[in-house]
Amino acid sequence: MRRAFTLIELLVVIAVIAVLIGVLLPGLAQARLTGRSVACMAKLKQIGVGVTLYFNDYRDTLPQAKGPLPYGGTAVIGALFGGTTGSLPFYGINSVGADKRPLNKYVVSYEPKPAVSGGPRVELDAFRSPVDRGARNTGVPIPGFNSTDSYYNLVGSSYTLNDHALEGDQVPTLVPRTDTGDGGRMPYVADVSRTWMIATHPIYNYESGGDRGSIWYHPSHIEANMLFVDMHARMRVRIPTGIVNTTTDYTFLPIP
């Protein structure tokens, strides 16, 4: 006669399985996040290859496009360097499409077509990070735009250009500011291996002294993937709290 499991034995087995799941799940979640971070880095490096090709046509000039200003006129808008149409109704972000963002044709193997009026936007997966979780506070004081679950959806790209320091637009970095709103060639960069050029949006988490809550890589502190002027890239660089433009790992400033 076969002996059946007792209730106590069954409960012990269930308890053991529960403990194993509790031990394994955090490790699996971390492994998945690491995989997504690596995929994000691969896209950032692909963008870097595009910038290198862009430099061949526009010497020492980062990709730049003009957008309309709220009070009239136009100026170079850093967010328009690449990617696709976003939802933010300012600075041309929701009107300058993939066909007019200058870096795109250097990153993808085709020239993006204009979006059809009233139709869906042109999607460019090369500019969408798999770890893009947006921000709890975008810094835009308008309902519907003061938070986002995806920077790719908000501005058209999960990646951003180093065109201003953490104090705000009044402190330009690699894209010069002029009275006419034009950009131009990059200034002299003292340390090309330490000055970041393109990064994921959490790099600006503490812009103007705020906290945007761009929790992409770690639950308790801010990290960003970065591409530097010398074209090397680093994954999950920690971002210190507050307005800190220069750290031991990176700098916003051409001359720290």
Distance between the termini: 82 Å
Structural class: alpha+beta
Order of helices and strands: HEEHHEEEEEE
Mean pLDDT: 90
Strand order of the largest sheet: 3-6-7-8
- The oligomeric state is single chain
Number of domains: 1
What overall geometry do the principal axes of the alpha carbons give? globular
- List the total number of helices: 3
What this model shows, in words?
This protein has one domain. The chain contains three helices and eight strands. It has helices spanning 7-57, 104-107, 151-155, and strands spanning 66-68, 74-76, 159-161, 164-165, 168-172, 196-200, 223-228, 233-238. It is globular and about 85 Å long. The termini are far apart. The model has no long low-confidence stretch (mean pLDDT 90).
Features:
256 residues, alpha+beta, 4-stranded antiparallel sheet, two-stranded antiparallel ribbon, 8 strands
Give me a quick take on this structure.
A hairpin with a 4-residue loop joins β7 and β8 (233-238). This protein has 3 helices and 8 strands. With 256 residues, it is α+β, with helices and mostly antiparallel strands.
